[in-house]
Batch of 2 targets.
Target 1
Amino acid sequence: MDTLKLKILDLLKEDARRSASLIATMLGTAEDEVARAISEMEADKVIVKYATVVNWSKVDDEKVTALIEVQITPERGRGFDAIAERIYLYPEVKSVYLMSGAYDLLVEIEGSSLKQVASFVSNKLSPIDRVLSTKTNFILKKYKQDGIIFEDQEDDHRMLVSP
Amino acid sequence: MIKDETTIQPSNKSMQNYLAPAVREMKPSGIRKFFDLVNNSKDDIISLGVGEPDFSTPWHVREAAVHSLERGRTKYTPNSGIPELREAIANYLYTSFKVKYEPSNEVLVTVGGSEAIDLALRSLITPGDEILIPEPCYISYSPITSLSGGVPVGIETFAKDQFKLTEKALRDAITPRSKVLILCYPSNPTGGTMSYEDWLPIAKVVEEKDLIVISDEIYAELTYGQKHVSFAAIPGMKDRTILVSGFSKAFAMTGWRMGYACGHQELISAMTKIHQYTVMCAPVMGQVAAHEALTNGLEEKDRMIESYNQRRRLVVKGFREIGLQCHEPQGAFYAFPSIVATGLTSEEFAQRLLFEAKVAAVPGDVFGLGGEGFLRCSYAYSVSQLSEALERIGKFLRKL
């Protein structure tokens, strides 16, 4: 990927609401060139979606998130992909990663209560053929996500005017 | 409580009478005055007034200092600094700017670049010597010259020359009493820089007039689109130059107060004498952190510089769009737009901008000759803060 596109991605990762015009100014390049690069990356699914990072602990209806370690038996010919697909199609599932190490898939589940997450694991995930075992880890507190520190951000301690 | 009648009370005499004349006559810094004004205002102010990075010191640098403390490294160091840091400084200056210094006797680690400049001036000045200072410039040069008994002589530089020092202006300012030339490029507050070609005629005059140069290169890393050229790297200038720099700006280490001076061993030895009788040595934890910054922090430094460059483009374009002339700063992290068209003085403009638009920026006149009619605006702020500040300044201008 060319350097311009990488720089655009860096700036959008910091703030997805930045306009092509602002990015063009910051990078010292033409606005239409930036707009074209963004369109291309959207079409190529390099930019998959513009999402908002939410600190749900600040919201009343706090969500429960669990990371589930799943051991599976891979399917002949399709390896882990088919089973991963079965799992990621559930709307409760926020992310699925194929892992090296002690287990095969790491599945992130989001629900409105512990009971709902537990029910998903026991009623939907565990009964899937080829799922050998699951180990559910509830997230107690999020400190940092996607490079963003949720709390105790370092304040600007600088004086308002200095030499 | 029993009153001790024997105590000598100096109360019938103003304390001012006890002060050294050079200190008594020293004017408070214009920045200080503006700082008080800003601090006394309780409003939600967006500041473009600071001369320091908005990044925290990179974590690995902080961690190196913490680790060193944990291991009990808390003792005095050699007066001129820990050997590994002096060596790292020499390597860095050679690799980056092609100036070669001998770590053992041509490098002195100081408490910030400011101490290095003070030591250099105190080592060189005989009372009455004239010290040439291109202005607008960093606010300390003139007062610390006076404190050393020297006579500061400002040389005005202009926006039409991108605030470069010209051969003619330098020649016009020189008298038989001229001894030292203080250079600061890239410049605080203008962002002006000097190229190799710009330096050559200046070097010719320096040699011809037998001047010593104190080259404050604290912003050397912060240049955009061109590589910094150290004055010491100009042929024949190394032995006439005391190169001063530090870690504050490029490595976001302002509070650590880590700086250094490099130059001819006899000059560095003289400076070291004063240094050993005043501060003894720079703090050891700062030296350890500085060593880590130089040896493992260059990548992080580049990332910060790229970010300043993005914000520089945003601010310069922003000022031009709202109708303020702004030369293209090629270094440091300041824009220096002209406010002459508004008919206000720098101080009036900055005060009204503060009270009416809630934006703090430093009036250009505090930086000496040539600063009147300008405003120093730091762009070491987040993109959203800069955008908001530009919007407020634009609204303010439309109401004038």
Note: Residues 298-321 of chain B form the longest helix (24 residues).
Target 2
Amino acid sequence: MAATIAIKNGHVFDPLNEINGDIMDIYIKDGKVVPELSDAEMKNAKVVDATGKTVMPGGVDSHTHIAGAKVNSGRLMRPEDSYKWNRPKTSITHGGTGETVPSVYLEGYEYAQMGYTTAFEAAVPPLEARHTHEEMHSIPMLDMGGYLVLGNNWFMMRYLKEGDINKAAAYVAWMMRTHKTYGIKCVNPAGVENWGWGKNVESLDETNIHFEITPREIIEGLTEVNEMLGLPMPVHLHANNLGHPGCYETTKESLTIPAKVKPNQDMGVEWAETKIDPTKDKSIYLTHLQFNAFGGTSWRDFESGVKDITDYVNSQDHVVIDSGSVPFGEATCMTGDGPSIHDIAVLTGSKWSNCDVELECGSGVCPFTYLKSNPVHSVQWAMGLESLLLIDDPWKTIMTTDNPNGGPFTKYPNVMTWLMSEAYRNETFSEVHKWANDRSTLGGVSRELSLYDIATITRATPAKTNGMAHRKGSLAVGADGDVTIYDIDPTRLDVTANYNDLLTKFRYADYTIKGGEIAAHNGEIMSIPERRTYYSDIKVDANEEKKMLEDVKDWFRYYTLGFENYPTPEKYLVNPTPINVNMEK
Amino acid sequence: MTEVVLTPNTEIDIKIEADVIKPDEFAGKSKEEIEQLIVWQGPDQLPLKNFFDVEGQGGSSAEETSILIKGDVSRVKMIGAEMTAGKITIQGTTGMKVAAEMKGGEIVVEGDADSWAGTEMKGGLLHIKGNTVDHLGCAYRGSWKGMSGGRIVVDGNVQSQVGGGITGGEIIINGNAENFCGIRQSGGLIVIKGNAIRAIGAEMSGGTIVVEGHIANFTPGMQYEDEQYDLCFEDIECGGAFKKFTGDFAISKKPKGVLYAGKEANLEL
């Protein structure tokens, strides 16, 4: 049962309401932010004194890999990831292990310790949706949702090739409902299908085997369908050629494809009152820009290609990105981009796992260690920060590590501190390979993000981008009572001398409040709050759906399971919370 | 040097994890403080005195502290784990993971040692006067980076996966080894004075292995180079004639691993 809570005298940073460090009180009742509490309510309220501290909405991670088959493969193939990173149980928490791929319980606790309350699993293969939801069911502390992988789906490729956009839309709507997922994910469009024959596609206009469709046609089709239906978030794109030197050109070209697609968000939700328009205004969400922005022609002349892309993003209004930053150390690469993971396995000689998900998509897993002594890794570190610092408008950027591809989410505090402190960046420059400075523009960047900017790129922008700003990412009246209090006094902040202090303060939030309940305090888990799973419940024309289902049932003979066993029932979800989309139909 | 004597005072049922038994923890502590150091037994945290009688006190620093364990500690895991200096002498058999991730100092085991002795060791000296079993100086399960520095000497025999993934340091075994010795080795030196069974140096990409005795099943990815005599690796000498092989060609086109097999004992190679 959510408590009544009053957070007094904190320095509030709430970008969706343009509140920049003002000293304010925040009141929460029945899990929602309210304008005030009556005297009677105040008597029973839990009062948290936030004097001299930083108050932000709960953190929102819009791209992380924490549930599902590939994450579990990562856990299975990496016993070494667990034995040095373990947490004993307490009276209310489970024990857990794992640094880059923690066990499900630990994932929830560690996000809560950092002040995060919402996370989106970035790749749900349709056939693995049940498994993904089963894992999400066990992840405590977090409100969650998942993106359905559709960029190499046989039905999508067929309908888009035939130009049957209505059937494509009906398929997307049915699939979202069937698998209880939230948005469209597009990974290496057309390329993963070719990986079934040991091949890939190398340009946007190369057709793939059998379907003879190009990445460009898939990106065009999916973005068009996305806005036609009015989904909460833009298409979530992992572009082609990821991880190959020179791939920044493909990425830049990919971003131009949906430039003329008009964003349309058709959701039946109750909006919290925010000052800034919280509705969707982007037609493409490019994820982990760093991995998609490799310059040069080989590993020898490898360099950052970030600036070219950020220049483009600065000049356009239809793109939002997340960074995929690299904080050094252990990582586990995992993605629906099977061929790119194979390349990493060949490059490093590391162990490797690969999977073809029948007619739908594929994936791969490979452990990785980012070393400060390695020239390429050092440039990648710089590129992740360039991604966030070279884009002028923080409403176009989201901070991530593409957990656990660039590094585990537990290293977000390092990324936030690098962004806020040039001195910390300079210290790291002195420790890493000189390529970091020679082959990126980061050395010349003196920009230091403020706490307001940090609140934007870790709360407001991900919430707005994902169509969650009606309840997340702000402290507006009506929003969820998700609040982070950091023991950081903004009036005494010295990012030049005291940046080390920020690392601990961001790692263990003073308080994480979820739906009005104190979930974590100073690194300790205090309670296990209620949580929800969001998905898009999309309406489409019944006739279109019927015609589409005839095709699907016909092709289902190629699946290894029966059609009736395909859907994910609601009982797999914890507090299933549908977002009604396209209700007009 | 100040000596602390630990004498086991009870039968241990569930094995205990006692990585607090090391000079770094004992230094600067009184007898009573040492007795109160915490060890894990399953999910329980218990004081050291529940398992050991303690005599003496720690020295002023880890360098100045030596620990003498009088008796069988085969149900005590992780003695000397991550120690940086000083000395531990175990007058008996020790449990798993003795000297795991050891960084410096010296550990002498007068009896046998259980599996994972010196796993991922980084420095110092581990001398096992009896036998040990599997995973000596090896990488932890799933990892490919084993021992990276220091020296392990075993007077008796070892079993499988000795020096798996080692990247540096030296392992010298006076007895026999069994399977997969030096698997995925990329640096360092392993010397086996006795015989070995199979897959010695499998998937190695660097480093050196010397087997003076007979290798029963030879690793197929090894390529013959030439014959060499009286090998010497700084203070470690291996006398006689050896057949030199490089490998493992199963894992790389230009592998830098070297395997010397005693000529007399391996005439069929």
Note: DSSP finds 18 helices and 26 strands in chain A.
